[in-house]
Sequence to fold (166 residues):
Amino acid sequence: MRMYEKPVRVLMRDMVEELIGQKDQIISKEQVLNWFAEKYPKIKQGTISAHLIRFSTNAPSRLHYSARPGEEDLLFQIDGSHFRRFDPAKDPPPIHEAFRLVEKGVGLRNAAAIISVSWGNDVDVPIKPTPRNWKKVQSGNPLQLRGKGYYYDGEFFRDYWSFGAA
Fold:
């Protein structure tokens, strides 16, 4: 059950529309946190921080948050605590895939792909199979993996993944 009528990913769009008037206008993480504290006080700061990364087109760690291409390419991260609107005319293309990070020289140790599932209140659970396991997934061979786990409402859960099973 959601805390508010809209999920956080939709509220992020509302925040961008309200706080960033012009393309080059810069906002701070503190301004974003204050906006949410005033309008949606039940949303945790960690959730807001994670969504800032998810919506920042040039943040390499956005891969962990399964950003939706186009729909969630809203911000350009200037540094760890300052953002502006993403401008496709002057900014590099948004990071959406692990291979793009490798091309850029950022690297992603032993990653062949990132697979994720999303549900409920913006819960995203990713797994990064090794190149060897990714080949098994692609071939349809049976494979079971255990992820790193995830937190939901302050409680830790394990994630188990099955591929190629009938």
Notes: The first strand starts at residue 27 and ends at 28. The first helix runs from residue 8 to 19.
